[in-house]
Amino acid sequence: MNGALPEDVVLKAIDYAISRGARLAIARFHERRRELIVFDGGALREYAFSVSSGVGVEVYSNGRGYSFTTSLSWDAVRRAVDTALELSKAQGRPVEFSSGGSGLLSYRSSYKVNPFTVAPEDKIRVVEEVNKEALRLEGIASSVTRMAFESDYRLVATSEGFRGESEVMLSGLAHSVVARQAGVMERVGDMRTFEGGFEHIESVDWLGFSDEVNKLALKVVSSKTPTPGSYRAIVDNELVGVVIHEALGHASEGDHVVSGTSVIAGMAGSRVAGEHVTIVDNGLVEGGYPVVFDDEGSAKVETVVVDRGVLRGYLTSRVVAGKLGLKPSGNARAEGYDNVPLVRQTNFYIKPGDWRVEELFEGFTGLYIRGKGMVGGGQVDPGNGMFSFNAGPSYVVRNGEIVEMVRGVLMAGSILEFLRGVEAVARDLKVETSVFGGCGKDGQLARVGLGGPHVRVNRVIVGGV
Amino acid sequence: MEFRARDVAFEAVREALKLGVSEVEAIAVWRRPLTIDIVRGEVNVARSGEGLALGVRVAIGKRVAVGGGSVRAPGDVKHIVEAVVRIARASREDPNWRGLPERISASSAKSSYDARLEKLDVGGLVKEMLEVSRGPSGGGLEVAGLQLYAVISERALSNTSLDVLEERSSRVSGYVEVKAVESGVQSICREYHMGYSLGEFKFEDLLENASRRALRGLRTVSVEPGRYTVVLSPKVTAGVVNAILSPAVTADNVQRGRSPLAGKLNNMVLGEDVTITDDPTREGLYSTTSFDDEGVATRAKTITRKGVLETFLYDTYTARIEGRESTGNAARPGVTVAPRPAPLNLIMEGGSESFDSLLSSVRRGLVVYETIGEWLSNPVSGHLNATVTYGELIEDGEFKGVVRGVVISGNFYNLFKDNIEGLSRELDNMYNVYTPAVMLRNVTVSSK
Q1: Cβ B92–A44 below 8 Å, yes or no?
Q2: In this predicted structure, what is the pLDDT of residue A413?
Q3: Is B231:B391 a contact under the CB 8 Å cutoff?
Q4: What value of ipTM does the predicted structure carry?
Q5: Nearest 5°: phi and psi at A65?
Q6: Is A226 on the interface with B (CB under 8 A)?
């Protein structure tokens, strides 16, 4: 680092930007360390590590300018500040932004065993065992098992006097298989991620975990695809996270609201969901991805987006908050030092309701759409109000009884019809994050928490063959 | 930047050889992106900067490891190499490992590179884009967003041979989002271009297409569920091919039992009109390059000729498992991860009819211009699913209304083998996949 400490570089960059006329300067040092071990078909296919780090500078002189550098030499950082200022000045009239406030915030994941110091052999052994076990089963054509660790360190400072420091450690394992039977192939996968260190990897019965995945694949490959059409549905507490993230989360991101490309723009105070539905974006929730401040130096507060069916708020950054007359909600997040912070969700979920899961099934006929085994994710068109996502192996239910398993379920719908069609919300809140994936937007990936309780809805569209 | 990609790659190889590895490969990528993002007639943000990243792959016998990261200070190269070697020493043998390419070389292909991007007048670009964003006035139309992304990069690769290859390239994309509003109804449409040069497209043209669709989208019609003739626009076809066919023709998925095309070489797997090549040497395309990500010279190859599967795509690792040569298709999803086989420029040849002529022959069907979720289709089973966010219902060649929110589905191989009615002459691309419009029979359409 040429002897320079990240904090010194960040603070110097801010002082320099202000001395050159910036109204607001935000500087961020970001270092992400990752390790990935992949077994494929019984052999170690990849053992990889990466350390990505650099400094990003966001300045407001006229408009909003952003620049970055991987080099920590002062010359390089100063050039980055100069570039950001030039870009800002090229934009004409000054842009308005909300203050993020001052103060100190810090967060550090607690862990007992730093996974990056664990001997490679100890990690390889776990992955290898899980991977090879699947291949012993007749009908499993492919087995891929991954173990990943990630440490994400961010130091954010602003010219308003904010300092934030965060280090999040994730550890996880993912296992996916392809089953083949009578010329049909189907894939099933599952993953578990823990906030913390290698102690979590050591605490899990991974063979038991992967056995469920393998058996599910062998079962689903012989199941039918659903008859395409419109269904009443119960969505489980794994998949509901993807649904809510796609169906409402993106539409509530304030940049879509500002650009007029959110179906819920201008609907604050209106009913957008069933009365059982309260939805929040919460930076700290058990099982989720912790965010206590964002990459523009704003504290992450719990944002109530929907309160008992009524739209109450949006997720914001500095500029978006300025345009909407709100305070920053702490949702300006960047994937890396080279990325401009965008309005992103953190842990966005439906709060638990009063129903027991069994009660949702009483007299129910329709589809029980599950997340377990799902490979893929979802996508939304927030402006036209449509969403689409993959589900895992799911079930046809008649009069409360599970009748048969179905595969290849793609569920689509209208954001508002889906939310207004929520009939019941169960008590079983579950939120999970992932070291293997996250949410994509404008080419950036953000770690998020997904989940919620089981919900029952009156109609979704299901694709099939 | 204090460091040059060429020097960093070469230094990494020398450091690794000093540590006694059997083989080493280093790739260094310097890049300088520019983004200008305009929202409703105002600049949201302008971004630029530069960075250098190094990726290193070493083998000690059959023990292989990959690693890398940002190069931010002198000494980083050595630290990265030492860490990768440490992991390789502690790692397991890969029984399938049969070595890196002994030599590295480049073809005569000219990489896609627009030198004008080196010295851009950002102020001038901002002004031009702002003018376009204020473009369509009245009629309830508004430009919600306008974005330009341009990046120049320099990629250098070296390996045990101590030779170095280097190449400068660029990519440029433009994106427009238009909203139409009338009587409380809103309709949003998008158009984009992905290429390598600013001279390839005009924002005005993107705006015109998106505006026409946004206005039409104010009047939607519903369609009954059933089987329809469906025309996928070139871009939608590219998205579908990218999601389903691209993974299926890569050798690692074939060898590992994840491709429905395994064991089908020399068989008819697509319709007789479907000829698909991978040609990273064709001038001016998205991923045109003279060498792949392990230093193998690029070349054109035919994947399907008139529907018959002729080859899969290989990197050195997968090729040597079968005792053959790499097809020059090693691609790294990121600098710091291992290369794997992937298409570079996947091109489906067009037909003889124009797109308009294709549409005029539709008796009753959907023309699909925008979808979401097509990338969630299943390349293992070939199951195609996509949610239509903008489609047009056509009867006897005439436009009848816009369809949104329906799901189209079917088995890709069944549709593209036995149900092709026609291919358009015009091609378009999504990233590195170039395809014509495809008219298909018997596509399942699910709706409310």
Answers
A1: yes
A2: 87
A3: no
A4: 0.91
A5: -115, 145
A6: no
